[in-house]
Amino acid sequence: MKTLTPKELFIGFSKIGMSGFGGVLPWARRTIVEQEKWLTAEEFSAMLGICQIVPGPNIVNLGVCVGSRFAGVPGAFAAVLGLMLGPVALLLVIAVLYEHYSYMSIVQGMLRGVSAVGVGLIASTGFKMLRTELKYPPMLAVIFLVLIAAIYFHLGLGWVVLLASPLAILLAWKKVKK
């Protein structure tokens, strides 16, 4: 297994944090899987799945998981600090500017544009992760079940996880046995 120092994790997660202000998951996947190759696409998806069901922001949970996997507790702290330090400082500056200029229509228009970009980035990451799952078609049943439960029945995250987990675990177990 590859090892990373807390310094390398701090630098890597600082790049992630500053690259995708407000929606870093697409940048995290690109950096961790495609550029740095710290994790495979499958490992990233599995780790993200766990991070999405535990309390807290998904990306912070992912920083803790990746950091601790490669450098233990110091790695987890380094990854989260790298992820948060730059954006928090930038957010404070933006908050001051917003307080002074929020009444301007151009500022309101910029915020609408930024939100559309965020939706696009999240959808893009979802499609990239879906490609990984298409390598094992039975897992599409889990995706279908989750979509029906969330979209049609409007179930909350806890119920969706309780409903879909048994099938997902069974299929993952069968996939590993192959």
Question: Can you characterise this structure?
Answer:
The chain is an all-alpha fold and 178 residues long. It folds into 2 domains: 6-134, no CATH class; 136-178. It has 7 helices and no strands. The protein has helices at 6-19, 25-35, 41-53, 58-101, 105-133, 140-152, 157-177. Helix 1 packs across helix 4, helix 3 crosses helix 4 and helix 6 (140-152) packs antiparallel against helix 7 (157-177). The radius of gyration is 18 Å and the shape is globular. The model has no long low-confidence stretch (mean pLDDT 90).
Helix/strand layout:
Blueprint lengths: L5 H14 L5 H11 L5 H13 L4 H44 L3 H29 L6 H13 L4 H21 L1
Helix pairs in contact: 1-2, 1-4, 3-4, 6-7
Q: Give Rg in angstroms.
A: 18 Å
Structural class: mainly alpha
Order of helices and strands: HHHHHHH
What level of helicity do the residues show? over 70%
What form results from the Cα inertia axes? Answer: globular
Low-confidence stretches: none
Task: Label this structure with key terms.
178 residues, mainly alpha, 2 domains, globular
Summary of the model, kept short:
The chain is mainly α and 178 residues long. The protein contains 7 helices and no strands.
